[in-house]
Amino acid sequence: MGAPMCQNLLSAGLPLTVWNRSMAKAKPLSKRGAVVSDSPQSAVADADVVITMLSDGAAVSNVIFTQGVAEAMREGITHIDMSSIGADEAIEHAKHHVNLGVSYLDAPVSGGTKGAAAGELAIMAGGDAETFAAMQAVFAPLGQATHVGPNGCGQLAKLANQVIVAVTIGAVSEAFILAGGGGADRAKVREALQGGFASSRILTEHGQRMVDRAFESGGPAKFQLKDLHNALRAADRLGLELPITKLLHGLFDAMVQGGKGDMDHSGLLTHLEALNNITGN
Amino acid sequence: MGAPMCQNLLSAGLPLTVWNRSMAKAKPLSKRGAVVSDSPQSAVADADVVITMLSDGAAVSNVIFTQGVAEAMREGITHIDMSSIGADEAIEHAKHHVNLGVSYLDAPVSGGTKGAAAGELAIMAGGDAETFAAMQAVFAPLGQATHVGPNGCGQLAKLANQVIVAVTIGAVSEAFILAGGGGADRAKVREALQGGFASSRILTEHGQRMVDRAFESGGPAKFQLKDLHNALRAADRLGLELPITKLLHGLFDAMVQGGKGDMDHSGLLTHLEALNNITGN
């Protein structure tokens, strides 16, 4: 997702220095006006704002703190971490940064590469209200940013987002199995339901994938499982019971255990069909 | 919901005869140009199309078949039952009508009184494709009608709709409990999530009720429970296992048992909060 986000920042006229572990991914952005850096330390050296978009909390911790990139940042700048990581990890990173005089926002996104390309990401930001307010020019080209609470809350909101996504995929799956089981045309059911209270982006987009049985991965089931695991871990730390999230975690876990980890998360339908001895129709 | 639907039919210039168990509900429509009938038999006597909107299958069966209203219909006309009833009941009603030479569509709706007033109901129709095609002028003023399959499938699609509604309410509830539990502002979380993959009409409308803690009933929990019960009954008849629907049935059942049957279904949040010893915030 980093590349389309960078393009939108460049289109907005913001000066940009980029670094990626794979030089091949960063290179094409030089044609668009970005400076390509050969190390994360040099990439951040003159920055007013540093944005990271990495795979998980361990990757962020490794690049920013273990490799001394945080120390390479100038005092008073802001680090916006748009990666999806644990809320506890975000709080820990915030503390490290405070010691170095760097402001920090956890600001994960929802909307996929499509949303990233369109500059229409839903951005959930945790941190200081003033820091958030100061970053509007950076967020605006990327999507709609909302300040949801102190550090860690952006990540919690993202987990909340992923809980809704997973559970809604389960809901649409069972709805299709029920209606289809009685002879209804699933494509028509999807169409009919879109105007009513059941309408959602999941019904529209993932429901279409289910109808087309196009389960090549947009968002793989194994990542959805990881998100649900992190949500339950966060809930556990907060002393919360989330029975629906727990059930969905179990279903996605069984799906991944059954060898479908790389299938799109909408493929949960096939797992529930298999439980019902239904062969895809 | 009958009244606003009648008003939309009248606004479209369709001649309308109305009957209601409570004369007081039918009367005001005479000012809008409807003929008010004093019995269901006389209401249907000259009709080309009969529309029923009643509370459940037993009410439809009683009015139409026990009270001899089906026999009062002219041969060759069409009865559109827009009530939410069992798929098996719809199939049975279709059979009764066939014997009397009356065409039948089961065509329940989603969208609530708001959707009814706006002429924007999602109408899920089961029955003969030709009968459905011939009814376009009747459906058009009421909303968007989709033919989903043979008789009974309209009702199954409605149950599928209700499954998605109930499960999505559960999803949004747990998402709010998780994010709020970690200090995020639920109103802001709702706002932030609306642009992403978690966006849905439930997040927008029911999510707002949760934020406002405005649980006066739009759709009471006891009706949501009835819908889930009917969905599981239909699944059972079709030999289907729906684990997520089953969990939500249990949660709504406990909510209703706990005395919250008349609360809006979005009040499931309060039931899940109580399980977590959270007092509403």
Short descriptors:
elongated; mainly alpha; Rossmann fold; 8 strands; homodimer; 281 residues; 15 helices; 3-stranded mixed β-sheet; N-(1-d-carboxylethyl)-l-norvaline Dehydrogenase, domain 2
Describe this structure in words.
Two copies of one chain form a homodimer. Chain A has 281 residues and is mostly helical. The first copy, chain A, folds into two domains: 2-150, Rossmann fold, CATH 3.40.50.720; 156-275, N-(1-d-carboxylethyl)-l-norvaline Dehydrogenase, domain 2 (Orthogonal Bundle). Chain A is 56% helix and 11% strand. Chain A is built from 15 helices and eight strands. The first copy, chain A, has helices spanning 2-11, 23-26, 40-44, 57-66, 69-72, 87-100, 112-118, 129-134, 136-139, 153-181, 186-193, 201-212, 221-237, 243-260, 268-275, and strands at 17-18, 35-36, 49-52, 78-81, 103-106, 109-110, 121-126, 143-149. In chain A, the strands form three sheets. Chain A has a three-stranded parallel β-sheet. The first copy, chain A, has a three-stranded mixed β-sheet with strand order 6-7-8. In chain A, helix 2 links the parallel strand 1 and strand 2 (35-36). The longest helix of chain A has 29 residues, at 153-181. Chain A is elongated. The mean pLDDT of chain A is 96. The interface between A and B is large, with 80 and 80 residues.
